[in-house]
């Protein structure tokens, strides 16, 4: 049986999936690019050919984060139309549970501090997600600001290893001095 070669779009998708994990754990380094190449079975120059640069790969990963969150929001809102914002928040927490989505977002945010192209893409993704949340829930700016703040808090708490199983309020309570944890 002849070996079936992957197409460039398939290799690109494979590279994004691998890069999300690698960048979330190791940052956007040349060594990370080599790990991505090794993981998908291609050369590092081929990964650069697919994306043009480390920045191009990171932008593709940021876009994938946006797509995953958007899909999560839609599924959650459809599953719980009576309280879609709460369902979307729960879906987001589940999406973050593996560490890849939040880790990638934190790495992209760190790069964005000094890279306006990445910063602009991160802002675009947030704007798209807020628009989607507004469309799915009818929420206004105040509710959306709280929703974004809660999501940001979840990303931060998850990244530093705080137990979120009891919800964000309980998690924050465990960080307060003198608080007895259950």
UniProtKB/TrEMBL annotation:
What are the record keywords, sorted?
A: DNA-binding, Transcription, Transcription regulation
- Tell me the domain of life: Bacteria
Per UniProt, residues of the HTH tetR-type domain are 9-69
Residues annotated to bind DNA: 32-51
Q: What sections of the sequence does the record tag as coiled-coil?
A: none
InterPro entries named in the record: Homeodomain-like_sf (IPR009057), HTH-type_TetR-like_transc_reg (IPR050109), HTH_TetR (IPR001647)
Can the keyword Ligase be found in this entry's annotation? no
Give a GO molecular function annotation for the protein: transcription cis-regulatory region binding
> Which PANTHER family did the record assign?
HTH-TYPE TRANSCRIPTIONAL REGULATOR BETI, HTH-TYPE TRANSCRIPTIONAL REGULATOR RUTR
**Protein name in UniProt:** TetR family transcriptional regulator
What is the species of this protein? Jiangella anatolica
């Amino acid at each position: 049986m002849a070996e079936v070669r992957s197409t460039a779009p398939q290799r690109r998708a494979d590279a994004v999936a691998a890069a999300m994990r690698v960048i979330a754990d190791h940052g956007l380094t040349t060594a990370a690019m080599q790990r991505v190449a090794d993981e998908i079975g291609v050369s590092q120059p081929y990964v650069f050919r697919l994306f043009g640069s480390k920045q191009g790969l990171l932008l593709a990963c940021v876009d994938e984060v946006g797509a995953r969150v958007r899909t999560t929001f839609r599924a959650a809102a459809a599953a719980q139309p009576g309280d879609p914002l709460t369902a979307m928040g729960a879906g987001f927490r589940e999406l973050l549970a593996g560490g890849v989505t939040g880790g990638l977002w934190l790495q992209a945010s760190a790069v964005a501090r000094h890279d306006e192209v990445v910063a602009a893409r991160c802002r675009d993704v947030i704007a798209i997600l807020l628009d989607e949340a507004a469309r799915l829930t009818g929420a206004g700016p105040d509710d959306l600001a709280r929703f974004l703040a809660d999501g940001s808090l979840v990303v931060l708490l998850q990244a530093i290893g705080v137990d979120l199983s009891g919800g964000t309020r309980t998690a924050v309570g465990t960080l307060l001095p003198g608080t007895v944890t259950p």
